[in-house]
Predict the structure.
Amino acid sequence: MVEIRCEDLWKIYGSGTVALRGISFTLMDESLVILAGPNGSGKTTLVRIIDGEISPSKGFVSINGLSPDVARAKGFFGVMPQEARLHEYLSVREYLYYLALIQGLNRHEAKREVNRIIDDFMLQEYVSTKIEYLSGGLKRRILLAQAFLGSPEILLLDEPTVGLDPEMRAKLWDIIMSYAKERGSMIILVTHYIDEVRDIASRVLLLYKGQLIFNGNPRDLLSKVGYKYRVQVRLRGSKALETPPLRLHYRSGDVIEFYVVDDEELIKLLNYLVGVRDWVSEFSIDRPSLEESYLRLIRLLEGGGSGQRL
Amino acid sequence: MVNVYRVYAISMIYALWMLRNKLFYFYLTVLLPFTILVPFLIIAPARLGPFIAVGTVILTLIYCFSTASQDLAVDRLLKRITILLTKPITPLEYFLGILLSNAMQTLPATVIVIVVLRVASLIEIEDMTLLLLGLIAGWYILTIMGYITALTLLSRDYNTVTIASNSIAFILTFTAPVYYPPEFLPEQLRILAYLIPTTHIANIIGKACSIEYGVPLITTYIYLLTLASLLTIITLKSLKLKDVY
């Protein structure tokens, strides 16, 4: 079991930019931790401090009691940085092999591990190809694959699927999710696609302007949105529904969204819709997304909102 | 504790770029020294021929300095160093990897240069052990100097590191009396020249080939041992791998 402890982390860059403002949390026995926040909220800075790439201006990080500067602490990690290039003059197999040796495996173990990673990441047909000749998506896959070398106990993946087409993104999520389920490693995932991994996430950390504004499980975050179901109703023509049964609803053109807080309210709304069915062309029910919850939190912090309340 | 596999892997990652660019490798390590050797031999008095030959060997070794500094700068520029910084590498292992990489890149070229100089009768090797000692001292000290240069410059962007390392490489090659004997310099400048490590590396290689630079070997040994120890302590105690940021 690995423990990551961050205590009062501040990061002020030379330019005076304050990237982190007193971040504190402890992660222990987590499966998948989502680290989310708007661009510039400090996610990548936090990851780089945790994996020992850069030092905090104040505060400290410990990995099982060790500073991340210590090589032994880095041995716990597999990291996919957001921005990194590969040594492209090497072939895929060479690159992974040398990084496996660097991860601490001996020659025999490294060869076996590289074969496993090549299979897991479906890189078989490219093993002898120089990395410079591969597409951007494949390079991204190799960048992700190298993080998994040696089955590290902590995987820090900084936007692993950014810039990929939906098919490739789905493939990479499959790999990451099956790894999270099978290996028992702690995966810290920086992503904007938070709903794509919500089902297996054990914790969500939300950053906003360098501050940790939420630290809890996805269910707690969903509760922040303030409703359980969203019912979307498209009206026939421009006829508005008179006396809608719920206070919490927004209208945009001929579409009304109802925000339903519990099952009882949902039944009440459905009964109402049956009564006015002549005016309804279609309707749908879905649950709130993590992204909505997250945006709602951000809006609350910014003191604003959106949508047109009737 | 040093993990030899890790050191080997780091060295291969850096060495393979150069070793796979054979034309560039040939130009930098063999052709370039000879393009300076030939005009120097034409314009200089014949008695300076052996000094020019030793200078050519030193110029080949200078490549250790340039690669140690510029490899780091290129890796930083291209954001390749990021991956290595997240791996469990100690500063010592990283430095040894760079050192081994330089050995793989520079020593074969140096051997080729020496063989050509020998075949052309520009040098006579009298003491092979001393020659090897000179080459090893040059390889180690020039590599560690390049490494420290890259990690201690206030601005570590590629252009700054390249300009700084080229300037220092010029001083090490041409300001130091390696293509000519120190006696050519005025006395005050000669004292300064004795502080430049390549003067002493040339002295060892020169002695191995019966070329007299006028510096007692014991002085050279004391100087190089002191310098190597000092630079090694600085590297191991003061420099962290993350300093490349």
